[in-house]
Amino acid sequence: MDPNAIYDTKSVGNSTTLPYDITDMKEIEKTFQQLAEKVAERLLAKNLCGATISIQIRDCHWHNQTKSKTVQNPLYLKNEIYTEAMKLFHKCWDGTPIRLLGVTISNVQDRKYIAEQLSIFNYNQYTKEEPIVEIINEMERKFGKGIIQKGVNIKKKSYASKTSFSKDFFEDLKEE
């Protein structure tokens, strides 16, 4: 058994049991907004995002229903989580009074390793970053190609000994 396994997050979620059965769409939306906010806060605290969103619905007869979807760009923002959760909800809710709602993000990964896939539908929201591209291009003209890189691409210096003899450890450090 791996003692560090407790630190490996597989999913981040939140659910709430409602004090009474609800069918009012405004209350359902408000509940999903609160759940999405809590999940987003937890993802932010761990610097995670996830590609799969799941919702859970327990009706007044204690029947559970789950629906999930894997998205192209990992989720971590509350508005995106809320929007996707509501899409799933509208696909599967039949109008039966609800007692519990839940939202979970799974297939989580560290946010520093993701890149968003742009499409013709979301490209315009990123055009405001165009001046940054110009600044990067100017710096590369002035200081050389590759002067600016993503932080995840920078190689860390290893302090591991290059030999199996511990007496050589300090000699290895002097070489670096």
Q: What is the mean predicted local confidence, pLDDT?
A: 80
Pick out the low-confidence regions: 158-176
Q: Give the tally of structural domains.
A: 2
Helix content: 25-40%
- Rg estimate, integer Å: 23 Å
Distance, first to last CA: 36 Å
Order of helices and strands: EHEEHEHH
What count of helical segments does DSSP give? 4
Looking at CATH, which topology of the largest domain would you report?
Answer: Dna Ligase, domain 1
Class from helix and strand fractions: alpha+beta
Outline type: elongated
Strand content: 25-35%
CATH architecture of the largest domain: 2-Layer Sandwich
What is the strand tally?
Answer: 4
CATH level 1 name of the largest domain: Alpha Beta
Fourth-tier CATH superfamily name of the largest domain: DNA polymerase, Y-family, little finger domain
Protein architecture, described:
- It is built from four helices and four strands.
- The chain is an alpha+beta fold and 176 residues long.
- It folds into two domains: 8-113, 2-Layer Sandwich (Dna Ligase, domain 1), CATH 3.30.1490.100; 123-153, no CATH class.
- Helix 1 crosses helix 2 (78-92).
- The protein is elongated, with a radius of gyration of 23 Å.
